[in-house]
Amino acid sequence: MDLQTILSKLFANAGAVGIEGTFQFVFGPQLAFWSEVKAHSRTEAGRHPAPDVTIEVAQADFLGIMGGSANVEELFASGRLKIGGNMGLATLLPQIIDHARHGGGALEKKVEMNTRYPTPPRYSETVSAGLPTQRTVERRPRSGLSVEEFRTRYLPQGIPVVISDALRDWPLFQLSREESLVHFAELQGITRHGDYVKKTFSTERDFRSTSMAEFIASLDNPAPKNADGEPPAYMGNNILPAQLLEQIQYPPYFDRSLFIPPRIWIGPKGTLTPLHRDDTDNLFAQVWGQKSFILAAPHHREALGTWSTAPQGGLDGCEVNPDAPDYERFPASRNVTFLRVILEAGDLLFLPEGWFHQVQSVSTSLSVNFWVNSGRGW
């Protein structure tokens, strides 16, 4: 199958999930195609005069992506795939590829990007509503918490727990900042800039392609807040590059086959991800520095003014700010018990599916998290 046909199939139904724009693919000096994505998409040979996104990638790597033997995020992180233009739109490329590779057709209802939808309830809400109110997060040393106890005491009912001294066998944890920079050479990630807190989960956030090594080297001298009080730049939710996988260890509490490829989070003091919840269990490892977590149980969905990025839910944000709740708009938030946790370097937090969490860097920080398709309660 030729490249133009593959791209035509790739973007055939991208408009159905609310994605619109022009994607330029450059496979070599004389080999380029562009795809205009709208309700009805089209793909043409050559170069578009004003593409929204430009993607430079070797033909063999692109065919690997479409065949399932290569990952677009990993190729980007390793520098083998270059992206220019609207990075917010570019961040949707993995979603487009996954939709096409798994035979996704047009959705019954078009998803409007950056629209907030009502949040459907989850089974985890029923579970947490039936438990006694949790007021603190238990902290257990790794040596005192067996895999069996984790799976019987914390996992079934979705109870958060901090496991201390959990990263002692991680080479990345043992390295100094200076030593670790060697492993970040030639790697790249996507950074968030501007007021990414107010634009939570929006593709309109200011995303930029950034060298990982240069970003880490700049962490001790981040740009000061501007007059609008915007947070510092944050390299959040990037796939952990393949070159760094040998520097970590997968936690033993779940079968390895259930893990989603791990993600890396790097930033200076002050980076903030506002209150939200994920759709899988999460193991969050703190490698450098400290991070502050504010948690709320799943059954507080309505009290927190929760909204979703898609009609079926999945990634859910909140209107309520746990640091300054607006009780006039959300009176039921008075009844929410917020749990506050400080993760120290070497800690691993089990964050069960459905638990709301706000995350802030207390100091220069590097974290790795593992989302897990455990299927708990589904």
From TrEMBL:
<feature type="compositionally biased region" description="Polar residues">
    <location>
        <begin position="125"/>
        <end position="135"/>
    </location>
</feature>
<dbReference type="InterPro" id="IPR003347">
    <property type="entry name" value="JmjC_dom"/>
</dbReference>
<dbReference type="Pfam" id="PF02036">
    <property type="entry name" value="SCP2"/>
</dbReference>
<dbReference type="Pfam" id="PF13621">
    <property type="entry name" value="Cupin_8"/>
</dbReference>
<dbReference type="InterPro" id="IPR003033">
    <property type="entry name" value="SCP2_sterol-bd_dom"/>
</dbReference>
<dbReference type="InterPro" id="IPR041667">
    <property type="entry name" value="Cupin_8"/>
</dbReference>
<protein>
    <submittedName>
        <fullName>Cupin</fullName>
    </submittedName>
</protein>
<dbReference type="InterPro" id="IPR036527">
    <property type="entry name" value="SCP2_sterol-bd_dom_sf"/>
</dbReference>
<feature type="domain" description="JmjC">
    <location>
        <begin position="240"/>
        <end position="378"/>
    </location>
</feature>
<feature type="region of interest" description="Disordered">
    <location>
        <begin position="116"/>
        <end position="144"/>
    </location>
</feature>
